[in-house]
Amino acid sequence: MSSTYKRTSQQQTWDPDAMEKAIRAVRNEEMGFLKASKEFKVPRSTLKRRVKGINKEAIEIKKILGSCHPTFSMEQEEELVHHILEMEKRFYGLTLQDVRRLAYQLAERNNIEHKFSKDTQMAGKAWISAFRKRHPELTLRSPEATSLARAQGFNKVSVMKFFDLLEEVRSKTNYPSHRVFNVDESGLTTVQSKSSKILAQKGKKQVGAITTAERGVLSTVVICMTAGGSFIPPFIIFPRKRMKELQDGAPPGTGFACHSSGWMQLDIFTDWFKHFLKFAKPTEDDPALLILDGHNTHTTTLDFIVLERINHTTVLCLPPHCSHRLQPLDVSFMGPVNKYYIRAVEKYLRPGRAITVFQFSKLFGEAYSEAAQQSIAVNGFRKCGIEPIDRHVFKDHDFLAADTADVALAEPVTQQNEANKENETPEREESPSVLQDALEEILAMTPP
């Protein structure tokens, strides 16, 4: 059964209008506390607190009871809804966890008293349920199974919607090629088991197939290039708590961070964005357009959203499961840098000699310096149809696999069918979507 709040407390069973009259009578010295309490049938102790203003509750006649009252004001919730709409419009594909995390960050940033979990740093399930009821303009779509999503990911509808949005954004602001950026992160391992496993797009099947013993020490590199052929210095995340002596041999200007996992983290991505701003230097007269993978969940933090807005950067996400065809770095850069990294590793290896994390920067630096060529960057954006914009760069046969998948697109979850499923499964990580008119409205509001 759905959880519906039922009041069990016996507090404040008195009439608020009667309490207001009793307060007025006491303050006007028409009667004392005892007489007013009996006359208007209100608790004497409560009447005293409210007349004397002992605590915050005394200021208001009506006390908010229970634990389900909104944490935010309507204005603050509208701000959160605005974030969700903007991010959905840019193909962010927020999950319920993302929204709960944003709510926690909004409360913390504005010093709002809340009961959200500090351990998970997210709002609770009860909050997100009530939030959705208060804002029916937000709806949900059922998540697709991963295999089906991948099969349908590169479909003509999604790709054309991306080009619609790209043209919309670039029609408002004339971004020259050197102000159109693409960023992506990849994992590299110090162990050369098979050449195809040395460097691969994070999350791809071949990376998941590597065993712990084969993988060695894994670090993450964040690479960013422009449609004009230039490169932002890379950013390396080491699987260490300290980075002493790990930076030797890295490309000039490289940024660094450390985390025990070696993977990208929420706060580290914000650090990378500050690194990006240092070199891209976007201004009101010379803004930047940053294109990234739609699966990059690190861009869903409130800190990042605020940073991009105040630093004249428009972030545009690629549709899910389309990076192998729409992401310039994936199309033109990752292959060459993988090849050059393997070559650097083979050159370094000697009998009885192993590669450790301390040689990583130097080996990656050699590979990066060979791969970071203007022609590689320019060709990547051109092949993806991003610069120059060419929505017809992909032919009908390119969408064949998606078009022949025998699966219908997910339908929006209505309140009725959602209610029918309440007894079936606990809360799932579903991706919020918005009604078409809300999307069109937010598109019109997007700043250049």
UniProtKB/TrEMBL annotation:
One of its GO terms (molecular function) is DNA binding. Residues 33-53 bind DNA. Residues 64-141 form the HTH CENPB-type domain. It comes from Mythimna separata (Oriental armyworm). InterPro entries: CenT-Element_Derived, DDE_SF_endonuclease_dom, Homeodomain-like_sf, HTH_CenpB_DNA-bd_dom, HTH_Psq. This is Transposase. It is found in: Nucleus. The chain crosses the membrane at residues 216-238. Signal peptide: none annotated. GO terms for cellular component: nucleus. It comes from the Eukaryota. Keywords: DNA-binding, Membrane, Nucleus, Transmembrane, Transmembrane helix. Residues 419-431 have a biased composition (Basic and acidic residues). Its main location: nucleus. Residues 1-57 form the HTH psq-type domain. Residues 411-436 are annotated as: Disordered.
